[in-house]
């Protein structure tokens, strides 16, 4: 749906199966997901979306985000064709997700979490619990 490798994909979703599906969809596109809390003030959400420069926002319900296309996850699933996930060759430096903090200025600042961080976590769990 127009999301390319390396782009940011904002997600306005509560913890749900739809959120997991959206995160996996971002991974399938080799895009980094950006969790956005819909309870945040509109100004903050707009600034995060401006910084993301995303072609689309995925959400669990219709959102009014001026100037920003929003896809409702359930509707996108209903109209998309299932396909095999492509095999991705990751070197660990790719952005997996971006979290926005308020930083020292109070303005949203994105912090990139690389795929190697997840790999290290999974590796630790495997060593610890095996």
Automatic annotation (TrEMBL):
GO terms for cellular component: cytosol. One of its GO terms (biological process) is secondary metabolite biosynthetic process. This is AMP-dependent synthetase/ligase domain-containing protein. Residues 2-124 form the AMP-dependent synthetase/ligase domain. One of its GO terms (molecular function) is phosphopantetheine binding. InterPro entries: AMP-binding_CS, AMP-dep_synth/lig_dom, ANL_N_sf. It comes from the Bacteria.
